[in-house]
Every structure is written in C-alpha cells, then in structure tokens.
Specification:
mainly alpha, globular
C-alpha cells in the first residue's frame, strides 16, 4: 500500500476524532472561542513537532509566492474551522461531518479549474455518489 494512502487514512481517522471531541467540547462554550483554543493548541503542537524535527532551518527556502499561498491556505483553513465548529454547535455531528466531506467534491471542481487536473467520468461519478451520500446522511425520516 502506498504511503500516501496510509497517511490519508490516518488523516480521516483524526478528522473523525475532531468531530467527536469537538461536539463534546462545545457543550458549554462559544464555538468561535473553541475554534481559537483549538487553533492555539494546534499551532503549539506543530511548533514543537517542527522544532524537534529541525524544520526551522529551512525557513529561508520559503519564497514570497509560496508564502502567499500558504497564508491563503491558513485563512481558508481558519474559515473552515469557524464554520465547522458553528455547525457542530447546533447540528448533528454525522450530518455536519457528511456535509463537510463534500469538500472533496469542491476539490475535484477546483482542481479541474485551477490546476488543470483531468475530470474523468469515474471522478465525476464518484463525486456524485459523495453528494448523494451526504444528502442521505442528512435527511431525517
């Protein structure tokens, strides 16, 4: 199995934990404050990891264009977290997570538009199944 697949599975497992721990943690706190605390914890954790792995010696390799897109990615991530925690605060965790995973559908669209990645029938059908799956997980009987 390719290493990226293992990393992707681990990412999905930890993302699931974010939903569960986040929903429990949001019981008696404002969602924006909770997101801020989470971001601080993440920043400190990643700082310690980067420091322990000696990654800061490579800071000079970051060019302006690269830094610009990393900053944009950070802002987009922060906006995602803000809305995710707002949704978790008031919604059902399985529905919120299902809709949030529609980000994959948006990635398919944006990758085709901005990165010239090919949009195959298999990819389009897979994205359609993800949309249908999210709808089915949100519908209440």
């Amino acid at each position: 199995m390719a290493l990226w697949i293992i990393y992707s599975i681990l990412s999905a497992v930890f993302a699931a934990m974010v939903a569960i721990f986040g929903k429990i943690g949001l019981q008696n706190i404002d969602s924006t404050l909770a997101t801020t605390v989470r971001a601080i914890v993440m920043a400190l954790f990643l700082f310690i990891i980067s420091l322990s792995l000696g990654k800061f010696s490579m800071l000079h390799t970051i060019k302006n264009k690269t830094l610009f897109f990393i900053v944009l990615s950070g802002v987009a991530g922060a906006m995602s977290w803000l809305f995710y925690f707002l949704a978790l605060k008031t919604g059902i965790v399985t529905g919120v997570a299902a809709i949030d995973r529609l980000s994959v559908v948006f990635v398919v669209i944006f990758a085709a538009l901005f990165l010239s990645e090919s949009l195959t029938w298999y990819t389009a059908i897979g994205a359609l199944f993800m949309v249908i799956g999210a709808i089915l997980m949100v519908i209440k009987k």
